[in-house]
Amino acid sequence: MTDGLLNVLLGLLASAISAALGWLGQSLRRRRRLERARAFLGLPAGSECLIVVNRSIGTGAHPRTVTRRDAFALMELAALVKECGAHADLVAHDAAPRGLGARTELCFGGPVSNERMAAHLAWGLPGVTVSSGLARPDNTITVGGRSYAADPEAGEYVLLARLATPEDGRPVFLVSGQTGTANHAGVRHLVNHHRRLARRYGTDGTFALLLKVVNPAAYGPDVVEEVADVTAAALERAPAPPGAPAPASAPPARTPAPTATA
Prior knowledge:
With 262 residues, this protein is α/β, with parallel strands linked by helices. The chain has a single domain, classed as Chitobiase/beta-hexosaminidase domain 2-like (Chitobiase, domain 2, 2-Layer Sandwich), CATH 3.30.379.10. The strands form two sheets. It has a seven-stranded mixed sheet, sandwiched between helices. Strands 4-5-6 form a three-stranded antiparallel sheet.
């Protein structure tokens, strides 16, 4: 074998080793990112989760229908669950199984049309109220003494939250928007930014973010701004009247140190 041929073979071998090492490094980084996403979402490979939806409350609507925007949000959530290697069970808000923490729960829709959402807010985020009824039919969100009303042109609001459950159970994610477009925007924000949220809040804590959907009449769910981290205010329960029984405790706002990025 000549020196020239030997050099060519050695060069090919070095290139192959470099390519293999690069592929292995990329695979390990993707694996670490996936495992962090699974830990934050509570979706280990092969696990099951609940996607809890509201039902249409429009006049004449079939009781088992959801809005078109909510259907779009469902497709994006299903893709995220599949990416983690988990399986989703879609249930209506009034047909969800009892219990908390056995499976990750992704619950979306306002508390007016979603009884499960109303229960989660009352237990986990007692400082959040959403208006309903004839006096304020606009689903105004009030938290920390400030109210946020929807305006189809100026903006609509959505609460995105993660609740830690007792005994280190699987988390509950809430996307409570004022409209179907706001629900879709909140789901899309979770899907697109769950890695950043995991770095910001850790993988086992409670947080609540208030997001604004900018000019939904023109942009739909595509332009979203973070209004505020309202975790502290959302966890603060209003004082109970004298003699009233003590309510159940809300989940603690555990915020461990952020993990290093890949």
